[in-house]
Amino acid sequence: MSFTHTRKGLKRTLSLGVAAVMAFSLAACGGDDGGATDSDKIGKDFDEIAAKAKEEGQVRLIAYPETWANYAGHFAGFEEKYGVEVVVDSPDASSAEELQAVENLKGQSTQPDVLDIGYSFTNAAIQRGLVEPYKPSNWDSIPDNLKDPDGNWVGAYYGVISIGVNMDLVDEVPKTFDDLRDPKYKGQIAIPGDPRQGASSIAAVFAASLANGGSLDDIEPGIDFFAELAESGNLVSVSSAAAGMTQGEAAIIFDWNYNWLGREEQLKADGVNFEYFVLEDGVFGNYYAQPVTINSPQPNAARLWVDWLTSDEGAEQYALGGAIPARFNELAEAGKLSDEALASLPDPKIIEKVKLPTAEQGDAANQVIATQWAQKVKY
Predict the structure, then answer these.
(1) Which of 9-23, 225-239, 306-320 is least confident?
(2) Alpha helices, DSSP H only, in 34-94?
(3) Residue of 153, 3, 127 lying closest to 63 (CA atoms)
(4) Is there a common fold for 45-158+286-352 and 159-284+359-376?
(5) Rounded CA gap, 299 and 52, in Å?
(6) Is the pLDDT of residue 368 over 70?
(7) Is 156 a residue whose pLDDT tops 70?
(8) Which residues have a Cβ under 8 Å from the Cβ of 19 and sit 6 or more positions away?
(9) What are the residue ranges spanned by the domains of the chain?
(10) For residues 324 and 157, what is the distance between their CA atoms, to the nearest angstrom?
(11) Burial of 286 (0-12, 13-18, 19+ CB in 10 A)
């Protein structure tokens, strides 16, 4: 397995301001797909795809950090099983940068074969002609809300927004969003960044909305909630989730459950008495999608990678990293996830409560955040 470019850190910003949304819309008007892959180049069944992928020799990915959702485990398992090398360019690229890379590198040997993009970028990827359909062998068992009906993408995993807590700085761990209003948490609560740019911060606002009378179609109560925390002094800013916890900038910080799991060992090594929790109300999650790019350099390896991610083995690797595999319910009921993997995931009762937005709901929420966040949330 090989990496190119320098890792910039685990934060994957999504650049979801008004300008970015407008840019996507404008690009969609003039998108040119450049032609889909010639069907003669692609194996006719899974075994032929796997054989041709081995001949291609590698799969080229972008924005797949090793510590994100246990991708290091995926890389090792995939290479061992199929004899295909995993090459990762710009492991910490944003979703917007992933789409731009396909546009810039289309037709070149360095074009990415498969992406890993935030759910709110799936429509833009399709509209700009950057992806082509592929339905992996487990297609029928992937829930409808985690796949495009035409096969343009699958969402192989999702996360749940959670709070990381420095147990030495908090006398009582909050259980609900309403608990966060308590004056005893003054100067202790943070989201990992600006929700106009980062997926985990958007998720925190969405979760707060669900806990305060909002819905997946109405994120405004979440903005109002954080405006209230900012006004009371409970909400503070941090440089990043990990640094904020290590440096004591805040004691309660929102982020994805799998990100906290991935940082847990290092935080404890840094002397932080750390645990993470999912609040009882406002249980919100969202997925990342893995589309095959248009006319990719290694079309069979690309498809084999998507098959791996949605396979039983791929699901196990995701779960070991705290990411909830798309086929979780099926595999858990069949006893196909290890005890270690299950222990890395949120409680099944929490997973049952997770609400996942559609790409359209995400687009609408981003527009509201872009226009209201700076006006209302002062901290």
Answers:
(1) 9-23
(2) 46-56, 71-82
(3) 3
(4) yes
(5) 9
(6) yes
(7) yes
(8) none
(9) 45-158+286-352, 159-284+359-376
(10) 5
(11) buried
CATH of domain 159-284+359-376: 3.40.190.10
* 138, 140, 142, 145 alpha-carbon torsion, rounded to 10°: 150
Owner of token pair 């810039």: 104
Count CB-CB contacts under 10 A for residue 100: 16
* Residue 89 φ then ψ, to 5°: -95, 145
Q: How far is Cα 160 from Cα 177, in angstroms, rounded to an integer?
A: 15
Quote the pTM value.
0.84
Tokens in use for 203?
């998720």
Q: Which residues are CB-neighbours of 26 under 8 A, at least 6 positions away?
A: none
Question: Please, are residues 196 and 369 in contact by the beta-carbon 8 Å criterion?
Answer: yes
DSSP collapsed to 3 states, 310-368: CCHHHHHHHHHCCCEECCHHHHHHCCCCCHHHHHHCCCHHHHHHCECCCHHHHHHHHHH
Is the pLDDT assigned to residue 29 strictly greater than 60? no
Structure tokens at 82: 């199929």
Fold of 45-158+286-352: D-Maltodextrin-Binding Protein; domain 2 (3.40.190)
Categorize the per-residue pLDDT at 193 as very low, low, confident or very high, splitting at 50, 70 and 90.
confident
**Is a pLDDT exceeding 50 seen at residue 12?**
no
pLDDT value of position 372: 97
According to DSSP, the β-strands at 131-132 and 189-190 are unpaired
- Residue 326 pLDDT > 50, yes or no? yes
Helix (DSSP H) and strand (DSSP E) numbers for the chain? 15, 12
Strand 157-166 to 252-256 pairing: antiparallel
Continuous segment of H or E residues that includes residue 267? helix 257-269
Contact 28, 127 (CB under 8 A): yes
Q: Provide the CA 4 distance to its chain's centre, in angstroms.
A: 21
- Cα 19 from Cα 32, distance rounded (Å): 21
Average of per-residue pLDDT across 345-357: 90
